[in-house]
Design goal:
Distance between the termini: 13 Å
Shape: elongated
Number of domains: 1
Order of helices and strands: HEEEEEEEEEEEHHEE
Number of strands: 13
Strand order of the largest sheet: 1-2-3-4-5
Amino acid sequence: MKLYITVLCLFFTVLTLHAQQGPDDLLLGTHRPEVSRVPKGKTVFLYPEYLVVTVDHEAVGSDIMVYHRAPSLKINAPETWKDLPVIFSLRKQDEADYFYGLAEDALLVDCGTSPDRVLKIFDLKSGKKVFDHDCRADSAKVIDGRYLEVPRQIKRNIAKLSRSQSEKYPKVAEWLKTGGSAAWFQKVSIDLKTFGEKHEGAPELLMKQ
């Protein structure tokens, strides 16, 4: 019961954060933008080289548009940027995509409204998606503005543990008895300039919804 309440609290906490997204909700270690809200549910994030505009969906998620910053651009004056060419856009009404920050030329997107979420990375120079995995996005961080560290799921969900695993992970075993699931995660470090990856540390068994 305690585990169920804990996960339920996390679920509503994540919903609250997304509903009130601002600079403090962007991934730790990403570049800090100037932020402003403009009419029609838009939030504007102004960076030295880019302008990111998000538009909230009625249910969950948001559209994400990225522009190259123009010298005459003013964050509180949409007329100075609304006609700029969009260099990248993510518009999916059926997915809970949220802007999670910029680092180097990488756009980070947090997808989901529960503790079990997907982290996506897009290269703004090529417009391509370079990372899309189940992760513990709320445990992610960027080091030195370039290296993303995040626990990534490396195996399928499991619903039952062996006796030795149950002894080693009693909280996970208890959680599985309530109908939850678990999976193995391993920390991965991603260079947001080259998009090279390397695993760090030993895999860890974590609870999932």
